[in-house]
Amino acid sequence: xxxxxxxxxxxxxxxxxxxxxxxxxxxxxxxxxxxxxxxxxxxxxxxxxxxxxxxxxxxxxxxxxxxxxxxxxxxxxxxxxxxxxxxxxxxxxxxxxxxxxxxxxxxxxxxxxxxxxxxxxxxxxxxxxxxxxxxxxxxxxxxxxxxxxxxxxxxxxxxxxxxxxxxxxxxxxxxxxxxxxxxxxxxxxxxxxxxxxxxxxxxxxxxxxxxxxxxxxxxxxxxxxxxxxxxxxxxxxxxxxxxxxxxxx
Length: 249
Fold this sequence. Notes:
alpha/beta; Arc Repressor Mutant, subunit A; Rossmann fold; 2 domains; four-stranded parallel β-sheet; 10 helices
């Protein structure tokens, strides 16, 4: 219900509503901020504030292409609004997509691999992002492997606050408020050594091992789980049996 109220409040302003209508009419195709400003006659600074509010409400997604910021209506957002207003969703049902943030030491490999895989097999029920406890570090070998597996390494950001944080490191992880569900999955830090070939081999083993956990996460009936049940289920995925499968060679 909180997300429904947030979405309706975001659309309560006529110009924000006009922005969202325009993006919905674009059929899901991303639109550059400059094109939006020109089409709707809204100053860029004002439009930026409107888009930030719509992103925070989960109505709009954004990503960067070069120096441009592209925006699109989130798939399923209109259906979620209608279900909420009609009361058609089951009492206590969780709104989707489940915004999932994977966090490792520096966002270099573990979190990027997990987010890329969940975005591929979990959409539209999940949307995933990668982050680091320390300042992010782009691992060129990790990017190379992601591209070889058909992922876009640049599209691993999250437009709104996460519902679920999965920590792939034991380092303390700042948690935004109101607090999301937080779970820890034990996973070794892949320190690439021995040259490029050895590094790619080790990262490839980590990517393949993570697929067990990510597939199990994507199969969860998250829309029917409250926070406590979601935390238990996701923690179980990171338990000893899956951990043995997820240990890189």
